[in-house]
Specification:
It is a single chain. Strands 1-2 form a two-stranded antiparallel ribbon. The protein folds into 3 domains: 186 residues, no CATH class; 155 residues, no CATH class; 137 residues, Serine Threonine Protein Phosphatase 5, Tetratricopeptide repeat. The protein has 22 helices and 2 strands. With 565 residues, it is an all-alpha fold. Helix content is 65%, strand content 1%. The protein is elongated. Helix 8 runs antiparallel to helix 9.
């Protein structure tokens, strides 16, 4: 039997804590968990203390078996076994985790309502174990354990995707090296198998030759003329038959009998596309293909915008640990390493629009050779936003916007205009009005690059150089747009309200209804930005309703869009 199946911790993940309470209780405030955290805190100690991973393994296993099915504790156990017992221990830990997930998902700790905390438990393990796996390849003696570990991480990853969907954590830091090591392990085990089958055959042939020689020697006196016998032929070693590779038909020939079957197949395609994209981007960063296929994978199962309450969804943002990791790489200007890492997170976070802006930003900093990749990202994102435009105005569960102000400026100025260069003139009735549109686009690009003052000056110059009042209105609208996109909603509101006050004097409703539609649309968005600060202001709510009524009159389609209906 294998060392993995015989291990004393092997089945503690599937065994219930008790019959009445299979998952136990929350132990985060108990002494045993505090002991665990204190031991792990030595990693950050300034006194060069060393973590005793045997203590971590013992305490973690006690908690899982007798107190609580806690995913973070399971991750601690898994890593502790890797540190103390190598690949065989790691295989045990992964099986414990996968069986906890498979059997007790609904009742595990942290509870389901804290999905981000569950996600973070696996992110911690992936980052820690990933560094170990890349620095300490297995030996030939680890082959069996490597195969079991590779199978266990595949099972765990599939379970997490099934239960968590797009919020499933990325485990590629574990799965990729284990997959590579498993290929080598199979070759190694095949060699051992061939050697063990060949040795008995050779021994039997040598025994037969020796016996024949002895018989010949015994008869030599009876022969008057001795003849040297011909040497016995060397045993012929049969060549090992190469196994014939069987085609993988798991996705292509699967029976489709329900929507559930289609979702399962799409998930399989998603996984394959992610793997292909990861291979391509690590082979050549400037290749446009990984950026296209990764986005197809990310959005292939996104059919509608997520439900929201006042713009806030139940979608969790990317893990804070990942974002801090990105910041550390950015500070070191390690863009070649940073971009694939952001792409990993994007493949699991289809609504994290900031990530697309960051990838484009860093690709540009590397050089012009990435222009095709940048165009691909912009084109794919434009298609996604064209299909689901309202995602631009939604937020994650912690109120973090899907797209921050800088990202929205980039989207407004570069992404949403990427396929509509011929439509700018349709937004207005004059050549000068087209100039303000071009000016706004340039200003937003400047602001997205951190040059906000220069962007404001550009639009102020447009106002000053316009001899006609109508053209000044367009430029002032552009300035209000810039203020709103850069987070200054109050300044934007002031400009827009002044335009509305003057609209009657210049009969804008008659001569420029398109401009007023834009003004009311932008003013409604500006009020929405200030809504939380003025939640007890009845007059503000009344103004918000009035602006929405006017927007419905001038542009009902836009009104439905900003309301999310």
């Amino acid at each position: 039997m294998s060392l993995v199946s015989d291990h004393k911790y092997r089945f503690i993940g599937s065994a219930p804590v008790s019959e009445d309470n299979p998952c136990g209780e929350n132990i985060r405030y108990e002494s045993n968990f505090e002991q665990l955290e204190a031991e792990l805190a030595k990693q950050e100690s300034l006194n060069s203390e060393t973590v005793d991973w045997r203590i971590v393994a013992n305490v973690s296993s006690e908690i899982i078996e007798h107190a609580s099915k806690d995913l973070l504790v399971g991750s601690y156990l898994c890593y502790a076994l890797l540190m103390t017992e190598g690949y065989s221990g790691f295989a045990v830990g992964l099986k414990v985790l996968s069986e906890m997930v498979e059997k007790y998902w609904d009742g595990l700790f942290p509870p389901q309502k804290r999905m981000r905390a569950r996600q973070s438990s696996f992110v911690w393990l992936a980052e820690k174990a990933g560094m170990y796996l890349s620095s300490k390849p297995p030996s030939s003696a680890d082959s069996d354990a490597v195969l079991e570990a590779a199978e266990a991480i595949k099972t765990l990853d599939n379970l997490l995707v099934e239960f968590m969907g797009d919020q499933a954590p990325m485990l590629t830091e574990i799965s990729r090296p284990l997959k590579n090591y498993a290929q080598s392990a199979r070759v190694e085990l095949e060699k051992v198998k061939q050697q063990t089958t060949e040795k008995p055959v050779e021994a039997k042939q040598e025994s037969a030759v020796e016996s024949a020689s002895n018989e010949a020697a015994g008869d030599v006196d009876a022969v008057s003329t001795a003849v040297d016998p011909s040497p016995a032929p060397r045993p012929i070693r049969a060549e090992a038959t190469k196994p014939v590779a069987q085609p993988d038909t798991s996705a292509g020939s699967a029976s489709i009998e329900s929507d559930s079957d289609t979702r399962k197949i799409l998930r399989q395609l998603q996984t394959t596309l992610r793997d292909v994209s990861s291979f391509w981007i690590n082979a050549k960063l400037s290749d446009s293909r990984p950026y296209r296929h990764a986005r197809i994978a990310s959005w292939i199962v996104v059919e509608t915008v997520p439900p929201d309450q006042d713009g806030v969804t139940q979608i969790n943002p990317p893990a804070s640990e990942r974002l801090k990791y990105f910041e550390s790489l950015q500070e070191k200007k390690e863009f070649i390493q940073l971009i694939p890492e952001i792409e990993k997170t994007l493949s699991r976070s289809p609504f994290w629009l900031d990530g697309h802006f960051l990838v484009v930003k860093y690709l540009r900093q590397i050089g012009d050779e990435n222009s095709d990749a940048i165009k691909t990202i912009i084109r794919e994102l434009a298609g996604f936003l064209d299909r689901l435009p309202s995602v631009l105005y939604l937020s994650f569960s912690d109120n973090t916007p899907f797209a921050n102000d800088q990202t929205r400026m980039w989207i407004e100025s570069e992404v949403l205009t990427s396929g509509s260069s011929d439509t700018e003139s349709a937004d207005s009735s004059s050549e000068t009005a087209e100039e303000w549109s071009v000016g706004l686009k340039t200003a937003l690009q400047l602001a997205a690059s951190g040059e906000t003052d220069q962007a404001i000056n550009l639009l102020n110059d447009g106002i000053a150089n316009s001899s006609q009042l109508r053209n000044q209105f367009y430029w002032r609208f552009a300035l209000a747009n810039l203020f709103l996109q850069t987070g200054n909603a109050l300044a934007a509101t002031t400009i827009l309200e002044q335009i509305i006050k003057q609209s009657d004097n210049f009969q804008l409703a008659t001569w420029e209804p398109g401009l007023l539609a834009k003004v009311y649309n932008l003013l409604f968005q500006s009020y929405q930005k200030q809504k939380k600060l003025k939640k007890d202001d009845a007059s503000f709510e009344a103004r918000l309703d009035q602006v929405f009524e006017q927007l419905c009159w001038f542009d009902p389609v836009a009104a439905l869009s900003v309301k999310g209906e």
